[in-house]
């Protein structure tokens, strides 16, 4: 007989989260970025009694402004729809809808009297828009073609419609005060100041103008933009603006800082009297010398209490609520940042996220109103996000070893002792970084070679090697599971990344002790065997292909010229990040094609320069090497090679081959 299970909720999201809970806890199913395991038992399990669940906080937030560029930039509607459905099933009820805003800005700028070339000198290319929106960057890799605006508008209509139909609150962008230089031509008496340069960019591509909060044009432009945006997309009354993201304000005077936040808020209420401002709290922990308690309080209190929500963006490592008396009374969301730049690399702070949100709720006079997931890039470390999503609904911490055992079983669709042991090992090692953990992948594999590279790990390398052995041993039973194959690539990749560090140390040691034969041996194995083998492993899985990232970029284009521009955007972002390696390798990825034609070529040059140095007796100069290797890095960006977007080779076989050769 058929079994009927009724799932209801206070909203579409709540009902979807209830459905996923049933699928997860009673049917043993699993959903993630890297795949789904949805083999339903027949008949469906009956519930003995009604199960009720309520989240302890009002909000479960998702998305980082940077992810719009690192992860979502080339998405079509089908990919967006999948993400929004995953969000609903995960219980996410608050998220940004940022697509298409440049089209609206362009309309506003044209109405204000700017010409197209002034607008083109302002917007960056698609892969860098996140930093244009925060006033960090202009022009780089631009301009934006007209077709880009049309396609993004079309996407945004569908995104907000889908999110709202599921009961999610959409967060729309608002005016933070940054303006194109053209505004000064049209309104010569406007009071605007140039901000300093951002990161390692000079004023060619940064130093954006910030309007004075007291200038009447601040309200005119801010309200004009928001009214236009609301007319286009409707509103749920929550708006995002970041005026000082990684930018030092012009004055530390508390009165000035209050005027800025008050001006931003008034430009929102001028268009929507019910406006609520959602602000990233990243700036407070990023520049703690500037943001002392008086400055933080001033910025937060420029807005009426309760009309702002602060994202405590990096709460798992550097919580701000603790030293600001819970944001001086403004509501906040406890967020897990976890990932920078969309880097690959097994990483987690499971103890911190298992206890942090509960401690924040118990904090004296806590103003916490929810939990959030705010990675800079997605499609990595699924386990950490599944865990954090589950914690958003819980009243107390989980027993992590038993949770991860069930996770492995659900993820692969069958209990397997070896796989469960592998996951418990990963949980206690690579996923349990404690203290202040900042997850930038600094492995020598993905960094420009030098004689001073960081090979420190926060865990025992042997635990990853053992997890690799255990996963491989369960390959005969689990090899048909797509999620298992993804994890096998990921763990093998991590083991290979560790091995690269070992070979690097051998290379450095051989060079420093003038041992040419040892240098040639270690360098030869690294460049001619380990890196090519890693590349073929990555090339065997569709989610680890450079070709997929590049073809997705080209697919957005409506002409060959656009396709070329978008592909250069995509290549630059994951490598040089700027014209001259300004934020070099920040967004490093381990992808089939990239390992062979970018990382491996760099290592080859490094080894040959060291060999040449020993042969000639001339010292190695890092500066000279950097100039030479920059040509190699640029060469990759402009190599015009088309990379396969379809995997090739047998993942299990390649991992086994690597294991037999390299398992320590």
TrEMBL record:
Gene3D superfamilies: Chitobiase/beta-hexosaminidase domain 2-like (3.30.379.10), Glycosidases (3.20.20.80), N-acetyl-b-d-glucoasminidase (1.20.120.670). GO terms for molecular function: alpha-N-acetylglucosaminidase activity. Pfam families: NAGLU (PF05089), NAGLU_C (PF12972), NAGLU_N (PF12971). Residues 403-661 form the Alpha-N-acetylglucosaminidase C-terminal domain. The keyword Hydrolase applies. It comes from the Eukaryota. GO terms for biological process: system development. Residues 60-395 form the Alpha-N-acetylglucosaminidase tim-barrel domain. InterPro entries: Hex-like_dom2, NAGLU, NAGLU_C, NAGLU_N, NAGLU_tim-barrel. Its EC number is 3.2.1.50. Residues 4-45 form the Alpha-N-acetylglucosaminidase N-terminal domain. It is an enzyme of class 3 (hydrolase). It catalyses: Hydrolysis of terminal non-reducing N-acetyl-D-glucosamine residues in N-acetyl-alpha-D-glucosaminides. Keywords: Glycoprotein, Glycosidase, Hydrolase, Signal. Belongs to the glycosyl hydrolase 89 family. This is Alpha-N-acetylglucosaminidase.
């Amino acid at each position: 007989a058929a079994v009927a299970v009724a799932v209801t909720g206070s909203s579409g999201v709540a009902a979807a989260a209830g459905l996923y809970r049933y699928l997860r806890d009673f049917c043993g199913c699993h959903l993630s970025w890297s795949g789904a395991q949805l083999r339903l038992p027949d008949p469906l399990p009956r519930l003995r009694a009604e199960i009720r669940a309520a989240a302890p906080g009002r909000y479960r937030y998702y998305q980082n402004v940077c992810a719009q560029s690192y992860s979502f930039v080339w998405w079509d509607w089908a990919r967006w729809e999948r993400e929004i459905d995953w969000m609903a099933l995960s219980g996410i009820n608050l998220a940004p809808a940022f697509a298409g805003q440049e089209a609206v800005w362009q309309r506003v700028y044209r109405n204000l009297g700017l010409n197209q070339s002034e607008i083109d000198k302002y917007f960056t290319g698609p892969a860098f828009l996140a930093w244009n929106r925060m006033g960090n960057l202009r022009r780089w890799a631009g301009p934006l073609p007209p077709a880009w605006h049309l396609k993004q508008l079309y996407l945004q209509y569908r995104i907000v419609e889908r999110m709202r139909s599921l009961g999610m609150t959409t967060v729309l962008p608002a005016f933070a005060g940054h303006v194109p230089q053209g505004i000064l031509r049209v309104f010569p008496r406007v009071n605007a100041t140039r901000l300093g340069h951002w990161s390692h960019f000079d004023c060619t591509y940064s130093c954006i103008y910030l309007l004075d909060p007291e200038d009447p044009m601040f309200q005119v432009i801010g309200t004009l933009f928001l009214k236009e945006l609301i007319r286009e997309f409707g509103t749920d009354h929550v708006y995002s603006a970041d005026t000082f993201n990684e930018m030092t304000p012009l004055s530390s005077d508390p009165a000035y800082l209050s005027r800025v936040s008050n001006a931003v808020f008034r430009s929102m209420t001028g268009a929507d009297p019910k406006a609520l401002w959602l602000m990233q709290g990243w700036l407070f922990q990023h520049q703690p010398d500037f943001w002392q308690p008086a400055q933080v309080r001033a910025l937060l209190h420029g807005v009426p209490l309760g009309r702002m929500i602060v994202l405590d963006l990096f709460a798992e490592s550097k919580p701000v609520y603790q030293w600001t008396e819970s944001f001086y009374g403004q509501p906040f969301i406890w967020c897990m940042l976890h990932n920078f730049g969309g880097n690959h690399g097994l990483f987690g702070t499971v103890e911190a996220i298992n206890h942090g949100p509960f401690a924040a709720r118990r904090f004296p006079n806590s103003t916490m109103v929810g939990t959030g997931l705010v990675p800079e890039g997605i499609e990595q470390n699924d386990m950490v996000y599944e865990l954090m999503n589950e914690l958003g609904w819980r009243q107390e911490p989980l027993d992590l070893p038993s949770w991860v055992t069930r996770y492995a079983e659900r993820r692969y669709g069958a209990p397997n002792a070896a796989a469960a042991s592998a996951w418990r090992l990963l949980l206690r090692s690579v996923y349990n970084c404690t203290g202040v953990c900042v997850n930038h992948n600094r492995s020598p594999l993905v960094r420009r070679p030098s004689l001073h590279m960081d090979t420190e790990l926060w865990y025992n390398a042997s635990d990853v090697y053992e997890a690799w052995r255990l996963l491989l041993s369960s390959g005969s039973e689990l090899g048909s599971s797509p999620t298992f194959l993804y994890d096998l690539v990921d763990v093998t990749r991590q083991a290979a990344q560790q091995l690269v560090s070992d070979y690097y140390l051998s290379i450095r040691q051989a060079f420093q002790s003038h041992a040419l034969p040892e240098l040639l041996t270690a360098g030869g194995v690294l460049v001619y065997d380990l890196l090519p083998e890693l590349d073929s492993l990555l090339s065997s899985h569709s989610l680890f292909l450079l070709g997929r990232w590049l073809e997705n970029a080209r697919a957005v284009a409506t002409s060959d010229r656009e396709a070329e521009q978008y592909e250069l955007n995509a290549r630059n972002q994951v490598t040089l990040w700027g014209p001259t390696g300004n934020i070099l390798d920040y967004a490093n990825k381990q992808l089939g094609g990239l390992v062979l034609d970018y990382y491996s070529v760099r290592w080859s040059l490094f080894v040959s320069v060291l060999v040449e140095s020993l042969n000639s007796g001339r010292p190695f100069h890092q500066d000279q090497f950097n100039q030479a290797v920059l040509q190699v890095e640029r060469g990759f960006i402009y190599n015009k090679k088309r990379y396969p977007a379809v995997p090739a080779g047998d993942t299990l076989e390649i991992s086994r081959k690597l294991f037999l050769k390299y398992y320590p």
